[in-house]
Design a protein that fits this description.
heterodimer, A: 112 residues, seven-stranded mixed β-sheet, four-stranded antiparallel β-sheet, 11 strands, B: 110 residues, mainly beta, six-stranded mixed β-sheet, five-stranded antiparallel β-sheet, 56% strand, globular
């Protein structure tokens, strides 16, 4: 049983396209997150949702739009993809902000 | 934004050696956590520390929450080849998402 699952695992797309990444957790956690890991492996928070409500929105371009249909799902839609969006995107969940987070296995996005 | 200073950036050791890495911050945190990331996978929680001064072990891993709440260290004893990976510290406080250090890449030669 995968605790936090995200799809797809790999995504290769052209500049200007729109794409979505889906995330689901079966841990019963109230809080979900999107992190971006750059080529230097630095993990940076993008968004956080608590029980379907947006709690944290870091300085992320508004081409990125998260959506949480219920507290077990947090999807990420990206419009007008740019080369600089290439990275690994991780979904995570937790019982609260300062508890241990459980991460998905990541989506490697490559924009060409 | 807030930053965690994690060191060393990388380590190359022989199997059987002990390893030590640490994280410092100018900010106080309520929680310190240590994660390991294998290639192609997400970070996996190794140890979570919730109280200043707390010392916690998980098998060959030992971590401590600094008394000032601004630092933490992770020790790995008797390293084995499967310890290879990237280790991240993370600091947590109420109302904000975890902030991660830049990682320590560990290489173990047998």
């Amino acid at each position: 049983d995968t605790a936090v699952s995200q799809t797809p695992k790999y995504l290769v797309t052209q500049m200007g396209n729109d794409k979505s990444i889906k995330c689901e957790q079966n841990l019963g956690h109230d809080t979900m997150y999107w992190y971006k890991q750059d080529s230097k492996k630095f993990l940076k928070i993008m968004f956080s949702y608590n029980n379907k409500e947006l709690i944290i929105n870091e300085t992320v371009p508004n081409r990125f739009s998260p959506k949480s249909p219920d507290k077990a799902h947090l999807n990420l839609h990206i419009n007008s993809l740019e080369l600089g969006d290439s990275a690994v995107y991780f979904c995570a969940s937790s019982q609260g902000f300062d508890y241990g987070y459980t991460f998905g296995s990541g989506t490697r996005l490559t924009v060409v | 934004g807030q930053q965690l200073n994690q060191s060393p950036q990388s380590m190359f050791i022989q199997e059987g050696e002990d390893v030590s890495m640490n994280c410092t911050s100018s900010s106080i945190f309520n929680t310190w956590l240590w994660y390991k990331q294998d290639p192609g996978e997400g970070p996996v929680l190794l140890i979570a520390l919730y109280k200043a001064g707390e010392l916690t072990s998980n098998g060959r891993l030992t971590a401590q929450f600094g008394i000032t709440r601004k630092d933490s260290f992770l020790n790995i004893s008797a390293s084995i080849p499967s310890d290879v990976g990237i280790y991240f510290c993370a600091g947590g406080k109420a109302g904000t998402a975890l902030i991660f250090g830049k990682g320590t890449t560990l290489s173990v030669s047998s």
